[in-house]
Amino acid sequence: MTNRIDLGNDASGSPIMLDIEELLATRLLVQGNSGSGKSHLLRRLLEKSAAIVQQVVIDPEGDFVSLAETFGHVVIDGAAYSEGEIVRLAARAREHRASVVLALDGLEIDNQMRCAAQFLAALFDAPDRHWYPALVIVDEAQLFAPSASGEVADDARRASLAAMTNLMCRGRKRGLAGVIATQRLAKLAKNVAAEASNFLMGRTFLDIDMIRATDLLGMERRQAEQIRDLERGHFLGLGPAISRRPVSVRIGSVETRAKSTVGGLTPPPLATGDDMAALLHAPAPEPPAQTDLWGDGAPATAPIAAANLQASIERQADASPSADDLAPLPDLSEAEAAEVARAVMAEMAGEDGCSFLPAATLFQDFTVRCRMRGLKDHGLDAADFRKRFSRALAGLDLEEPDGQDARLMGLADTIPAELMAPFLAIGKAAIAGEPCPDDEALAVLYGTRSVGRARRMLEHLEKSDLVVVRTDFSGRRSVAIPRLDVATVMA
């Protein structure tokens, strides 16, 4: 098996070969403006060398996941895994020499940088018995090794830049050969770019980038216009793995396609300007008719006129029995009293904003509502009511809990009353195998509008060894309750 692959042809039609073995020792830098064909070049390189060497692709746009179908690459969705899982996957990729694509398109830029940094660091830190040769292709490298700080978090930028510097400066001894592609050399950290000995320069228009490109290619600056005039898919190559003198390369065809590839032009719909304007300015659809909650379920009718409403009220008053005609309320049995108390509790827990009211106000309201339903003595003191109400808020107002529910409520009795409702809601979701309530829902159960306070509450529960929180790079969360051996699903 040869270690040289065919990148494409030069101006005369002769093939331009790339020596993969030499590339492993000398690294590659690809530069070109958007639309110059960088991703096409990387895809050609990946496809032609797939059977020769292990490949690791850092893919911020998810463009290279199609390699999995044809060439067997393993796609790792960075948004689906936690930090520890990303590290383990990278270590196993090195151990088993698996070609992988780390797809980061589901993450914001800060988390893309953190995830890539963790993955690259794990590749770099693998034990020496796993130092097999591997190409590490980083598309849009200026995102992961920026020349200056931008709007991203400083810790994410430092971690990503350190990982990229290790890859390019110290990766060779560990078998890692960096292949980095960037839209602009001026945006790429110089320490990262300077370690490449092979260059493929595509079309670019800014003077500063053209001058840096000609300097790297060993060309005179008056020749910089050549770079501006390059066609899409044409590059100037130089380096020990390509050619000892600058050579023009027209990149060959590829088998796979990026998911973002647009297949030609799509004409607009055949419609007149007036028709399209009518579509854009069409009125919003009418909302569905609201149901009359106090009637028979039919859609609500138009508002009743004030005079008619007053007449209806007078008729109702005339037909109402007098106080002397009212029969005394019957005495409720213990089961009936418990049912009334439970119904009132559920009714109050279902009302918007109830969790923001003081406990004393809620207890007084509960007492009044029970009396209005004929229950003179509900048998609860303020502390018992608060516990029962927390259970009702969490949807766990069980009269006689058993199994995991009973263990959960017993565990909840050991924590402060203000934490019971969010803790019980988490526990209910974990027992049912459902996603954990989001921060907004937990904040409401905690009696606050502040999402930050809800997160601090969750941190307090974790520090108290009641829960264990696991969050992946996309922000999805799973909360486990070790004492019950249950956990919510990742969402």
How does the SSE layout of this entry go?
Layout: E1 4-9, E2 15-19, H1 20-26, E3 28-31, H2 38-49, E4 54-59, H3 67-71, E5 74-77, H4 83-96, E6 100-103, H5 109-124, E7 134-138, H6 141-144, H7 154-170, E8 176-182, H8 190-193, E9 198-201, H9 207-217, H10 225-228, E10 234-239, E11 243-251, H11 273-280, H12 306-319, H13 334-349, H14 359-372, H15 382-393, H16 403-412, H17 417-432, H18 439-446, H19 451-463, E12 468-471, E13 477-481, E14 486-487
Parallel strand pairs: 3-8, 3-9, 4-6, 4-7, 5-6, 7-8
Antiparallel strand pairs: 1-2, 1-11, 9-10, 10-11, 12-13, 13-14
Distance between the termini: 46 Å
CATH architecture of the largest domain: 3-Layer(aba) Sandwich
DSSP helix fraction: 40-55%
The largest beta-sheet arranges its strands as: 2-1-11-10-9-3-8-7-4-6-5
Pfam families: DUF87
GO molecular function: ATP binding
Keywords: ATP-binding, Nucleotide-binding
Domain AAA+ ATPase: 24-214
Characterise this structure.
There is one protein chain. The chain is α/β, with parallel strands linked by helices. The chain has three domains: 4-251, Rossmann fold (3-Layer(aba) Sandwich); 332-377, no CATH class; 394-491, Arc Repressor Mutant, subunit A. It has 19 helices and 14 strands. The strands form two sheets. The chain has an eleven-stranded mixed sheet with strand order 2-1-11-10-9-3-8-7-4-6-5. Strands 12-13-14 form a three-stranded antiparallel sheet, covered by helices on one side. The relative contact order is 0.09. Residues 24-214 form the AAA+ ATPase domain. Keywords: ATP-binding, Nucleotide-binding.
